[in-house]
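During the reporting period, we have paired protein sequences with backbone structure tokens. One record among many follows, to show the layout:
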Amino acid sequence: MLQEVLELMQRHHKGKDDIPSHLVPQLAKQFGNGLGLQLRSMPITMRIDKLLHVAHPELSELQHESIDRPLQENMGALSPRAKVLSSDEIVRPNTSMNAAFAKFFAGLLNVPMVFALYVAAGYGEVASARLQPIRTFTTTSGCSSKMTIADLMSKRVKLARNIG
């Protein structure tokens, strides 16, 4: 996936002077690693947090506090600067996964405002679609691995070539 992200970034920045050209590979690596990390960790985080929330409701306040920072950081993908730094082919999958993450936790922790900005930016329906593999995985017995979820999500964001 890193090579694909690099090519997209190089094409996006070709002929522009918004960032120095020697920084494009480093930025592409950060974006590529970030996308891969999202594909691998978000589904697992959501499953564990749901189990934790159900099994230990007394920890709800701590759970909310621990997830608040990642939710806030993810909102950076909605900023105009994100589209300057990267192409829509990278920003859109990243933001749609962030929207799914926000929708999940907005529902789990009953804080709808966490998801409101994504809805306003047009990511409401795509967030629901991104969550479908998680719902399917958590309600189907006999699923084999976290990679199954990552594969399903990566296909949904059209970055299925190589997530490892």
User: Anything to note?
Assistant: The two ends are 8 Å apart (CA to CA). The CA atoms of residues 105 and 111 lie 8 Å apart.
